[in-house]
Amino acid sequence: MAGTPRPPIKPSSPCGSRRRRWCCWPSRSDHDRPIRCTRTPSWQHGIASDHYTGKGNLMDIEIVSTDEAIAACYPVMRELRPHVGEQEFLSRVRAQQAVGYRLACLRTEGAPVAVAGFRIGENLALGRHLYVDDLVTLPDRRSMGYGSALLKWLRTHAVEHGCAQLHLDSGLQREAAHRFYEREGVVKSGFHFVEIFP
Q1: Contact of 136 with 109, CB cutoff 8 Å
Q2: Alpha carbon separation from 51 to 7, 37, 74 (Å, rounded)
């Protein structure tokens, strides 16, 4: 609401920290519309913050790097990639990191509720771009603004790293995901073909 003061944002890392995080206040729309936000850099704490209108829990988004933080993302990622077992999750993420994969985690009250796996690439077709491998929110936390906030973070990360485009694939059966992406302004641009070798 206009004129309503925003709640204070507590720094997620000590002053002078080089680790970059985002703090956000999500809102839930009665009609599931994308939430509005204003990005306000807080350079005194080394933080870039998103302040969201409406009520909600304090969110923190960061690229995870420790074994413990990566493993904590598994319960969320399992909702999208159930074929990947918990015992192999960490080793597979580490192997993908060696070729550019990064895992961003959105936490609220200290617990992961949404994750995004992505990589920055460059090719003749797309130029420099950010490709989203994985984007998922816990089932009981959907339609609360978390997926939208994480997608906004990905867009900003892409622009800040010189990317002109963001791309992702979504299975034909994921109709709810398709509606989410369309609401967020991500458009269908083609077909994805696959051949599985014996």
Answers
A1: no
A2: 9, 6, 27
Instruction: With respect to residue 2, please indicate whether it lies within any of the assigned structural domains.
Output: no
The answer to whether position 17 is within a domain reads no
Quote the pLDDT of residue 57: 64
CA–CA distance, 24 with 22 (Å, rounded to integer): 7
Domain for residue 54, yes or no?
Answer: yes
User: What is the reported pTM?
Assistant: 0.74
- Domain tally, the chain: 1
Q: Is 16 within a domain? A: no
Helix/strand/coil (H, E, C) string of 62-73? Answer: EECCCHHHHHHC
**DSSP type of residue 13:** S
Q: Tell me, what CATH number does 151's domain have?
A: 3.40.630.30
Domain extent, residue 158, equals: 22-183
Residue 35 has a pLDDT of 34
131 near 119, Cβ under 8 Å?
A: yes
Choose among 136, 144, 140, 133: nearest CA to 80.
136
Contact between residue 60 and residue 104 where contact means Cβ atoms under 8 Å apart:
no
Q: Give the H/E segment covering residue 59.
A: strand 59-63
Q: Which of 88, 140, 89, 159 is nearest to 117 (CA)?
A: 89
Residue-wise pLDDT tens digits, 115-132: 999 999 999 999 999 999
